[in-house]
Design a protein that fits this description.
The chain is α/β, with parallel strands linked by helices. It folds into 2 domains: about 160 residues, P-loop containing nucleotide triphosphate hydrolases (Rossmann fold); about 180 residues, Nucleotidyltransferase, domain 5 (2-Layer Sandwich). The chain is built from 14 helices and 17 strands.
Length: about 425
């Protein structure tokens, strides 16, 4: 008989995480205040699962919104807590550890989630899920769990009413989900004196979001947060009718090796109706031309940014010329600053109605589109954060800048509201 080897991992769970470690559900969502220790708890949960998994070649993953973030936040923890395991091998270049039982824990970034296509997983932690492109879960990570019946754990601190908030709300009362919310006022992990001091240098929204786990607090640095919150209060994010006799204008953000986003809008009196939204990546312009032609709309203007006139080295044609050849006669808007576009969009949103179903991804992007944050200087930069929200927000900026004078008149608050 082989000998049993006892390995002691230098981790003592905080009492607040005992219920999490003892959970039996396949799915888990945890909302926790800053410095609660949620990442340490999750890393150790992954290690335990990888050691005890009885499937051949177990595979577990920790995923952060960005690859560099995964390395900064979790890699040292993974190495530290697996170091006492005899025979463990760390791979710095791939941010993974290989365990003697054939198990593996690897770190990924959701900013390049396509890289994970084709892998299988027995368990995964998605840290700060609200900052990730939601397609990463739906299109890549969830399928990777299917054949091995793997589990998933979503964690984060609130950043407005985004897809993380929706997941938290859906999980409430569902017996297949473990849910946990840890507020600083209740855990006593951060003492009262420190919390009181934090309040002195933070806004109420910042404190409520970071320490009290409030999904209602405004997303810090969000460009359109106030306008989109008001749209929701006014019930202008609802079921929006399409008027077949009125032309549909489109506004595009053209990605190269990146996502391309398209808003579909109708101007009806003093209302701007956003009736549809489409986004894809990794496909040619002919794909988008087919998508437009497959829809039942009668089109007006197709609005493109100024760089669509730049000729590509490979073809010698601009993207505008390519679209023209595909039957999409587009109009180019002059180059303007990002700030001008953001201001134009802010003026447009108060008179806009958004279809809650067809424009769901675009609406979520507008809610979360925000200024980049300098972690070293602890202040916001003057430029937007480039993440999954950028494409929809850029296309909306072009719409705001490109509406013709007859449709870009001063928007007034509509008096008629549709019932969802």
């Amino acid at each position: 008989m082989g000998e049993t080897l006892s390995v002691v991992i230098p981790y003592t769970p905080r009492p607040q995480f005992q219920d999490f470690h003892n959970r039996t559900q396949r799915w888990s969502v945890g909302v926790a205040h800053r410095r609660a220790g949620k990442t340490v708890a999750r890393v150790n949960d992954l290690i335990k699962a990888a050691i005890l998994c009885d499937k051949p070649e177990p595979r577990f993953a920790y995923i952060a919104p960005f690859y560099a973030q995964a390395k900064d936040v979790a890699w040292q923890y993974v190495k530290r807590f697996t170091a006492p395991i005899p025979g463990v091998v760390s791979n710095e270049s791939e941010l993974r550890v290989d365990l003697p039982n054939g198990g593996r824990i690897r770190l990924y970034g959701a900013d390049n989630y396509e890289r994970m296509r084709g892998i299988y997983l027995d368990g995964v932690v998605l840290d700060e899920y609200g900052d990730m492109d939601p397609r990463a879960w739906a299109e890549v990570i969830r399928p990777a769990l299917s054949d091995r019946k793997g589990w998933a754990d979503f964690i984060g601190t609130p950043k407005g009413r985004n897809h993380f908030c929706e997941m938290w709300e859906r999980a409430q009362g569902d017996p297949e989900w473990f849910t946990q919310m840890l507020k600083a006022s209740e855990t006593n992990i951060v003492d009262a004196a420190e919390l009181a001091d934090a309040r002195k240098t933070m806004t109420e929204d910042q404190f409520e979001q970071e320490y009290e786990c409030s999904f209602q607090a405004a997303v810090q640095g969000a460009y359109f947060g106030r306008e989109m919150t008001q749209a929701e209060k006014d019930k202008r994010i609802c079921s929006v009718p399409w008027e077949p006799k009125i032309p549909v204008h489109t506004a595009w953000d053209l990605g190269i090796g990146d996502s391309t986003s398209i808003w579909f809008a109708q101007q009806v009196g003093k209302e701007l109706r956003l009736i549809d939204y489409y986004e894809s990546s990794g496909v040619g312009l002919d794909h988008y031309a087919r998508e437009l032609k497959a829809k039942p709309y009668v089109y007006g203007d197709h609005i493109l940014p100024h760089d669509a006139e730049v000729k590509e080295l490979g073809t010698g044609k601009s993207r505008k010329e390519t679209l023209d050849s595909l039957g999409i006669r587009a109009r180019i808007i002059p180059a303007q600053s990002v700030e001008d576009g953001i201001n134009a969009a802010r003026l447009l949103i108060p008179g806009a109605w958004f279809d809650a179903t067809k424009c769901q991804r675009g609406v979520e992007a507008l809610r979360q589109y925000r200024r980049d944050y300098d972690e070293k200087l602890k202040n916001f930069k003057s430029r937007p954060l480039h993440d999954w929200t950028s494409h929809a927000a850029d296309a909306f900026r072009y719409l705001a800048l490109g509406l013709r004078p007859s449709t870009a008149a001063k928007w007034e608050q509509p008096t008629v509201k549709w019932v969802v």
